[in-house]
Specification:
Blueprint (H helix, E strand, L loop, with lengths): L9 H23 L9 H20 L9 H9 L5 H19 L6 H62 L3 E6 L4 E4 L1 H6 L4 H5 L15 H9 L5 E9 L5 E12 L5 E10 L1 H15 L9 H13 L5 E9 L2 H8 L1 H18 L5 E7 L2 E8 L2 H15 L4 E3 L2 E3 L3 E9 L5 H17 L4 E4 L2 H22 L3 E10 L5 E12 L3 E3 L1 H11 L2 H22 L7 E6 L1 H4 L4 H12 L6 E6 H4 L4 H13 L2 E7 L16 E4 L14 H16 L3 E4 L5 H9 L4 E2 L10 H12 L1
Helix pairs in contact: 1-2, 1-4, 2-5, 3-5, 4-5, 11-12, 12-13, 15-16, 17-19
Length: about 725
């Protein structure tokens, strides 16, 4: 073999050969180690074999070749306690497979190297057999000598046995006692007496059966009775004992039955290992594993154990759970640092702990700023409300940290009910959902779990998770609601309204999924898809409707789309690909999205307006905006919210609503803005709005949202 290093010369070749020798020794040691009877570790055996490998390499390369020298390799194996026949076969296998590969002489042919290797294997085997034979003869001779001395040694052995027994008995690090079958202690060693306080009379005066403890395992004394009856040879268990001073000694107890020469039960041998410190350590580790390191409260692990026990209990047992989340805690961490946040959590934990001191109550920290309080008993319907009130009351006073006061608020979700009806996971999920309902209601309050609200929240979660795949599977479609000229009643265009054909819940309106899409960020790709489909449909209408101007298409923009940096580029791309004129597109933005909007937010709308795209201010009148701000907004259409026209459905119409709409229309027209009215449901509404000067309208009076072909049919009807 060639050395792996790029260096040349005798030193490099020697280093490479030494490296191969050690690799060969590694392979050899791994092969024979499993069948050795040596106290050496595998790496130590490997080091032991390295000189033998060097000898094999030298023998393989020597001139003249002397295979008989390899016999000492076989003897070395026996000396290393590799006496199992399998050790020889494995050694020969390793030599056969790797000796030539790692140590072969490149100046000789492969056949010569293999022939030499075979002769070396024979010599190794011969040396192994000879050494094994010599060892066997030596062992037989030793046995013969031992048998001659056995008679004399027997008497000495009996004496030595007694001496050794006494040495073991008195000097053992574990407690040892011998008792008769009635449980009377006949002998005990010093260790056992020290384990029980060093009072011999206290130990010897009591029978084994008197050493009872409330935490004894139920089967301990049954095992004992079986042992003294001779039905069991021994048993082992963990058992506590009371010391004379009342403290508890925990032990690993082993009791064995001693029989006489005829095999009848005679004595019992008791061995006790003191495990008190180990048990205390285990209890400490258990405590650390089940308690929060920061606050010292029970953690999620221990809480789930208690909750599982509470919710699975039957026979009329009830439970109440308060799930607490601090309001605005993230702002404290982000602004003042986690050290301050941790100190605040410690103070909150102390206050919560003081709220749950009654039997059956506990407080735990789940993580972050989330805490739970659990109460059990027959009257949890009342107790859990009181517990939640105490918690909110305890948080009412400010927390002072480094001379600075912090106001702490919390939202609590409460789940209460009988055990045996729900799993712990279901209970905790319901409490979590209810807590967020309390937070959405303003926080610093508690709410009771509502199965219907839980179902809605779970449905929302399912819809949120299904949204990305729904867009990929083309589960969305668009319905169109016509926009009608109030002057002549002709169809002016249509508003695109997206729908979701959900495989489980059927057709869902935008109010069911648009807020979810906005929270997850999916509103941007979904909005682009709606824009593409609506513009494509408008272009199709314009090709078929040649009389008059093109039908306009209104598409809603969410606040997230409005802030997306690709809004202008995406809109331009969609228009160019479809061939639709910019003037045939109207983008609707809610008034609330533009309240207090700065120039950076308005810039993309201005760019689109300069291209000819109309911008409509949707839901006008619901955002409490300053009417003077209309002058700086790049809008060309106001869409009045339906709340302004609802009073016109009655007869006579509400005069206040008439005055408000009249004023808005006058203001809009003075600013050269068109006015569109939503929610027109009656002919009387339509007529009044026309008289007030509104330009266009939409609503069920004209048509409900529907398929795109209906818009074309309405246009044809207008033409006739």
């Amino acid at each position: 073999m060639k050395p792996s290093s790029q260096a040349t010369g005798p030193d490099a070749e020697a280093d490479a050969l030494e490296d191969r020798v050690r690799r060969f020794a590694t392979i050899w040691s791994r092969a024979v180690y499993p069948v050795t009877s040596t106290s050496l570790t595998r790496p130590e055996l490997e080091q032991h074999l390295v000189p033998a490998v060097r000898d094999l390499c030298r023998m393989l390369r020597d001139h003249p070749f002397d295979a008989q020298s390899a016999q000492r390799i076989g003897r070395a194996l026996v000396d290393a306690h590799c006496t199992d026949p399998d050790a020889l076969s494995r050694t020969l296998g390793v030599v056969d497979s790797y000796l030539v590969l790692y140590c072969g002489d490149q100046e000789r042919t492969a056949e010569e190297n293999r022939a030499r290797c075979a002769r070396l294997q024979h010599a190794v085997a011969a040396g192994f057999a000879a050494a094994l034979r010599d060892r066997t003869l030596a062992e037989q001779e030793a046995i013969a000598r031992s048998s001659l001395l056995a008679r004399n040694d027997a008497l000495e052995a009996m004496h030595a046995t007694e001496v050794r027994f006494r040495a073991v008995f008195e000097g053992a690090a574990i407690g040892i006692g011998i008792a008769d079958l009635d449980g009377n202690l006949l002998e005990v060693n010093d260790t056992l007496m020290q384990m029980f306080g060093g009072l011999e009379h206290h130990v010897r005066s009591r029978k084994v059966t008197e050493w009872v403890h409330p935490e004894d395992r139920p089967q301990v004394w049954e095992f004992y009775r079986e042992l003294v009856r001779g039905e069991r040879e021994h048993y082992r268990t963990e058992k506590p004992f009371y010391r004379n001073d009342g403290t508890v000694l925990w032990t690993n107890l082993t009791v064995s039955l001693l029989r006489d020469a005829e095999g009848a039960p005679q004595y019992q041998l008791v061995l006790l290992e003191d495990t008190t410190e180990r048990r205390l350590l285990n209890l400490r580790l258990r405590y650390e594993a089940t308690h929060d390191a920061l606050t010292g409260l029970p953690n999620r692990t221990l809480f789930f154990e208690r909750l599982e026990k509470a919710v699975s209990a039957g026979d009329g047992a009830r439970f109440g759970l308060c799930y607490l989340d601090l309001d605005g805690f993230k702002a404290i961490n982000d602004s003042l640092g986690h050290a301050t946040g941790d100190r605040l959590l410690v103070e909150v934990a102390d206050r919560l702990q003081s709220c749950a001191t009654a039997p059956g109550e506990m407080v735990a920290r789940l993580g972050g700023d989330e805490f739970v309080a659990l109460t059990t008993g027959p009257d949890t319907e009342r107790e859990v409300d009181e517990l939640a009130s105490r918690i909110l009351g305890s948080l009412a006073s400010p927390v002072t940290i480094d001379g600075r006061d912090f106001t702490v608020r919390g939202s609590i979700g409460i789940v209460e009910g009988p055990g045996g009806e729900r799993t712990s996971a279901e209970v905790l999920r319901s409490a979590d959902i209810t807590m967020y309902r309390a937070k959405s209601a303003g926080g610093n309050r508690f709410e009771l779990a509502d199965p219907e609200a839980d179902a809605r929240a779970i449905t929302r979660h399912g819809l949120t998770n299904a949204l990305p795949a729904a867009l990929e599977r083309d589960e969305f479609f668009i319905e169109y609601q016509p926009l009608v000229h109030l002057g002549d009643g002709s169809v002016h265009g249509a508003e695109a309204l997206v729908r979701w054909c959900h495989p489980q819940y059927g057709v869902l309106g935008p109010d069911r999924f648009i807020p979810l899409a906005e929270r997850t960020g999916l509103i941007v790709p979904l909005g682009r898809w709606v824009l593409q489909e609506a513009v494509r449909q408008a272009r199709y209408w314009s090709r078929r409707h040649t009389d008059g101007g093109p039908l306009r298409i209104n598409v809603n923009l969410s606040p997230a789309q409005l802030q997306h940096p690709g809004l202008v580029a995406d809109t331009v791309d969609v228009l160019e690909r479809s061939g639709l004129e910019p003037g045939a597109l109207c983008l609707e933005v809610t008034e609330s999205a533009l309240i207090g909007a700065d120039e950076d937010l308005l810039k993309p709308l201005r760019q689109l307006a300069e291209m000819g795209v109309d911008i409509a201010l949707d839901d006008f009148g619901t955002g409490y905006s300053n009417l003077a701000n209309l002058r700086r907004l790049p809008v060309s259409v106001l869409k009045l919210d339906r709340s302004f026209t609802r009073g016109m459905q009655q007869h006579p119409a509400d005069p206040v609503d008439l005055k408000i709409v009249e004023g808005i229309v006058s203001l809009a027209h003075s600013l050269e803005l068109a006015v569109t009215v939503e929610g027109v449901e009656t002919g009387a509404q339509a007529e009044q709005l026309r008289e007030l000067g509104c330009d266009t309208a939409q609503g069920w009076y004209y048509a409900r949202p529907g398929a795109p072909d209906r818009i074309h049919a309405l246009v044809l009807a207008d033409a006739v």
